[in-house]
Amino acid sequence: MAVLGDSMAEQKTSNKARLSAGSAAPAAQLPEADPAKLALAWTHTARFLTTAAQLDQLPVTELPEIAFVGRSNAGKSTAINMLTQQKRLAFASKTPGRTQHINLFELGPKLQANALFADLPGYGYAAVARGAKLRWQKVMADYLNVRRSLTGVVMMVDSRLGFTDLDRQLLSFVAPRLSNGAVKLLVLLTKADKLTRAESNAALASAQAELGEITTDEADVGMTLFSALKRTGVDDAAQVLHGWVLTARLGE
Ligand SMILES: Nc1nc2c(ncn2[C@@H]2O[C@H](COP(=O)(O)OP(=O)(O)O)[C@@H](O)[C@H]2O)c(=O)[nH]1
Ligand SMILES: [Mg+2]
């Protein structure tokens, strides 16, 4: 498991090694280019494609797809807007838990999209009725199980709260594909600006412990502290997602 950035000093060497290995191919072709800038230029191309109320409304696609998941209010919309450097791409809602839709965004050159972002419904909003919760579970489980083009999952976890039962449940839906490396995982520990340094390290350690079970040799699991306010983790996260898409080979 990789902890990105320099938030834990003792992890620094292995992080750098992992990041440079992941970006070796494009850097060789463009020796002058800064991988973080390339990644951010790519995430910035994100534009709305379509919205689906049900799984069978999702377009069939060969493009690698990255799903954004998280408990309502975890900072998912804010993180998507930060990563894409667009103020209102994902709507930061004041009434969480309302929408059960999957919003798809397209990335890459206009006539030659090379990836999709899928903004999945937020979960865990207390006021949602039991029927809606069961429907949510089914949509998420089905999507994570059967979406063939799914390449990676970005999970937003509020760094002050840590993993909730619904986060664990969601990870269990996709655990088989995470364990064998078919689907990659990046956990963003959000709102890190609200933590002291000691609290940040504790949040990272506890998230690492949570992810221990799915972290096999084949699994590609990363995490980083993330703050929209301080821009923590934005460059690293963009590079990880860009790396996933550059190395994605569908059908594996
Ligand atoms: N301090 C701080 N607040 C944040 C951060 N990210 C999101 N928030 C706040 O957390 C609340 C929920 O954010 P939102 O992106 O709508 O969460 P979502 O429900 O997961 O999409 C909003 O009031 C945001 O302004 C952050 O990095 N730092
Ligand atoms: Mg939102």
Percentage of residues in DSSP E strands: 15-25%
What structural class do the secondary elements suggest? alpha/beta
Strand order of the largest sheet: 1-8-7-6-3-5-4-2
Broad shape: globular
The CATH level-2 architecture is identified as: 3-Layer(aba) Sandwich
CATH class: Alpha Beta
Q: Could you give the order of the helices and strands?
A: EHHHEEHEEHEHEHEH
Biggest sheet character: 8 strands, mixed
Distance between the termini: 22 Å
- Radius of gyration using CA atoms only: 17 Å
Bound small molecules, which ones? guanosine-5'-diphosphate, magnesium ion
Structural domain tally: 1
Q: Write down the overall mean pLDDT.
A: 86
Unreliable stretches (pLDDT < 50, length at least 5) are 8-24
Strand runs, count:
8
Number of helices: 8
CATH fold-level name = Rossmann fold
Write up this protein.
This protein has an eight-stranded mixed sheet with strand order 1-8-7-6-3-5-4-2, sandwiched between helices. It has 252 residues and is of the alpha/beta class. It is built from eight helices and eight strands; from the N terminus they run βαααββαββαβαβαβα. It has a single domain (2-19, 33-247), classed as 3-Layer(aba) Sandwich (Rossmann fold), CATH 3.40.50. β6 (150-158), α6 (165-179) and β7 form a beta-alpha-beta unit.
